[in-house]
Structure prediction request, 198 residues.
Amino acid sequence: MTVAPERPCRPVPEETPVSLIDIAEYAARSLPHHRVEILEGQLLVTPAADGPHGLALTDLTLAFAALHRKDAYVIQGIGLWLPSGDDHAVPDLAVVDKEFRDHEIKYKCYDPAIFRLVLEITSTNWRDDVERKPDAYAGAGVPVYVICDREHGEVIVCTDPRGGEYRTRSVYRKGETFVLPESIGAKVELEVDGLLLK
Prediction:
């Protein structure tokens, strides 16, 4: 008969509370090609977008070429820190001030004050883009929010954020073109059809 020597057990540490932001960071590391956001205290994990979404995003990036690197940058998937708790969003596309690097808050998210425009192309999570994010972005003071709503076949341009909501919502449908507010730094004209690819 063999007897194992008695060893003192290491004390089990008290459980360390895990925050939602910790879980979000773990999800971001563990789920490549997924977008991880926290909105209204809820963790949102969105799978990679489809090909038409990516194509529309590439076309949009090219449409903003006159603006990029002059006095602003056009960036895909940059984190935007929201003013409530650990909430943050990662818009598909953003126009940000050139000195954005000096305004990182935490977790690779930046101060909303450096964002001139955010844009979302709807995917499986279209309700978040259409129903929840307008209030979040308006509450953060983002001057222009563009929603390319593939589910309903329209582009919505939200401007004039006040009191946690956008005061102006302009809706454009297939076959139409529109010009974004020049407050983003340049005149950018877009065709709705190219934004609603499926």
